Amino acid sequence: MFDLMPFRRRQHDVPDVFEGFEDMFKRFWEGSMFPELTSEENKWTPRLDVNETDKALEVVADLPGLDKKDIDISLENDVLVIRGERKEEHKETDRHVHRMERRYGSFYRAFKLPVEVKSDSIEATFTNGVLKITLPKTEEAKKRIAHITVH
Q1: Is the alpha carbon torsion for 28, 32, 51, 71 positive or negative?
Q2: 47: number of Cβ within 10 Å
Q3: Residue 150 belongs to some domain of the structure
Q4: 62 is a domain residue
Q5: Is residue 32 part of a domain?
Q6: Alpha helix ranges (H) inside 30-121
Q7: Whose C-alpha in 7, 42, 96, 151 is 20 to 30 A from the C-alpha of 141?
Q8: Whole-angstrom Cα distance, residue 129 to residue 89?
Q9: What domain count does the chain have?
Q10: In this structure, are residues 81 and 59 in contact, taking their beta carbons and an 8 Å threshold?
Q11: Residue 131 burial (CB count, 10 A)
């Protein structure tokens, strides 16, 4: 008779599986080379795209809320470094903050370029919170591209 009755567990008897997985994931990555996966501090990492054409590499980064003066770009031993800081705006008001998800503070992105570039011809533009860096390839790097015909 009891087999035909619907069975419902009370909510407090069911463990929060997702919370357990999240805790396990955070413990796994602690102290790793991917600290942004576990950090709850005010750190943030801008997202970027890296594209390659026959003539150049192009890096596009989303940097909302920054000014040109807040960004520093350098090329050090074939490693492109983008650093900057997004400052938090503090306004004295009588508002009560219910949720704050936007991240503030300094950031640092660095990655090794896959090809040699002409360091004296690099161009960077910053428009509407989007940074675009064009890194022209050296003639030697351009020659390394092999186009293969599929038969």
Answers
A1: positive
A2: 10
A3: no
A4: yes
A5: yes
A6: none
A7: 151
A8: 17
A9: 1
A10: no
A11: 21
User: Could you tell me the CATH number of the domain that includes residue 110?
Assistant: 2.60.40.790
Distances (CA, A) of 112 to 39, 63, 81, 97, 145: 24, 20, 9, 40, 18
Residue that is written with structure tokens 């005010």 in the block: 42
Handedness of CA 72, 74, 79, 80 (dihedral sign): positive
Q: How many residues are given for the chain?
A: 151
Q: What is the pLDDT of residues 54-109, one digit of tens each?
A: 899 999 999 988 999 999 999 988 899 999 988 776 666 777 777 777 777 888 89
Query: CA dist 148 to 56, 104, 114, 145, 151, Å?
Result: 20, 46, 20, 10, 10
Taking only Cα atoms into account, the Rg of the chain, rounded to an integer number of angstroms, comes to 24
pLDDT tens digit sequence for 16-52: 666 667 666 666 665 555 555 545 454 678 889 999 9
Measure the CA dihedral 5/12/40/101, to 10°.
70
Domain that residue 38 falls in: 2-88+103-143
The residue type at 103: R
